[in-house]
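User:
Note these tokens:
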Amino acid sequence: MSSSWRSCDRPISAISGWRDPSSENSTSATSTSASSSHDVRPCSPGTRRGGPPSPVTTHRLEETERDLVEGLRGPAYDWRPVNAGNRSPGDVFDLPVRRSDMDETGRARAGMFFEYAQEARIRYLMNLHSAGERWSQHVVARTDVDYLAPLTHRPEPYAVHSWVAHLGSRSFTIRSDILDGDRVLARATVVMVTFDPRTQGTTEMADQQRARLEKELASS
């Protein structure tokens, strides 16, 4: 069995079952193949697995494709303000990137950025907690990632800088920047909510936890 693979840049109309809404109820519409009605780039050979990354191809959305995607757009949600100005040193986590994290283009898959932020956040909070301190249990309420630049595989680790960007009575926000030197590749913002497993609801944050997080809170 061959270990090589091929990649194509196909328009959305080439997907099985997709119909162009502009052609419905049209007496002049005729059945045509995707290749005759769209500017379809031919498939180009990829590389053998483990070889160099394949070039990334792009496809400019046509009006019918854009209309379809716009119809799937979800509502926008506003974040509460987060502090990223005069921040505490926080925690810098050395992030090793695994080859299994990469997609066929040689870049980290989008979902991996959530895992990277989680690895850094867990280590950060573990380091903040001191033996004997009482902390409330907390759970993730929301995670948002801004992708700014691709992350590729390399032997040297990247860095993840995490700090407390917002602090409330029942929640706190951790901001994590994934860095290549001074360059920010992605920004993750995670809202943590203090949680009571008995009532299955939110609860007031423990005093010792809040006092420790306050020391890490960045000023605006």
Residues 1-18, 20-51 have pLDDT under 50 and may be disordered.
